[in-house]
Amino acid sequence: MNIFRFAGDMTHLISILVLLLKIYATKSCSGISLKTQELYALVFVTRYLDLFTDFVSVYNTVMKLVFIASSAAIVWWMRWHRVVKRSYDRELDTFRHHFLILACFVLALLVHQKFTLQEIFWAFSIYLEAVAILPQLVLLQRSGNVDNLTGQYVLFLGAYRALYILNWIYRYFTEQRFGRWISCVSGLVQTALYADFFYYYFISWKNNAKLKLPA
Predict the structure, then answer these.
(1) What tens digit of pLDDT does each residue of 17-58 get?
(2) In Å, how far from its chain's centre is CA 153?
(3) Quick one: signal sequence residues (predicted)?
C-alpha cells in the first residue's frame, strides 16, 4: 500500500458512488452503457476469486466486496428496475462487447504469469478492464451531449487508472522484485483510451460549457 494506490482506490470508489448517485437520485441510467457495467462486473468477479482463500487485510477484503456488490447493483438497476431500465439508451449501446470478452480470454491463455486457473482469470480481468470502457465511450460519442454526473463518473474512472500508473512506478523503484508488467501495460492502454475524453472535458471546463463529444 502507498499513497498513489490508496488515492487510486478512493478515486475508483468515488466514480462508483457518483454513478450510483446518478441512478438513485434521477431514477435514470441515460448516458450509461449497460455493456460496460456488465464488463466491469465480470472483471471484479474473475479478479477476486481469491477473496475467501487468500486473506491480505480487512481493507483489501472490504474493497473487493464493495466493488463486486456495487457493480452487481448497477447492472441490476439498469436491467430489472422497472423505472430505471426505461431510460436505458439501448439503441446507442450497441457495441459488441462479447468480442472483447473472447479476445481478452484468448490473450489471457497466451500471456499470463502462471498457468493456473486463478492466474489466467486474473490476467483475463486485467485485459478486460483495460478495454471495458470502450462501450461507454462509444455511447457518449454517439449521444453527443454528456450530463454532469456521467461526465464526472468517466473522469474519476480514468483518474483512478492514471493514479495506479503512478502506483506501479513507485513500486518499481521501491520493490526489489516488481513483476506486475501485465497490469502496467494494460493500465497504459486503458489510460490512453481516456485521452480524448480528458481533452474535451478540460475544454468544456475551461470554457464553462456543457461537455460535448464529437460524433
Answers:
(1) 999 999 998 999 999 999 999 999 999 999 999 888 888 889
(2) 10
(3) none
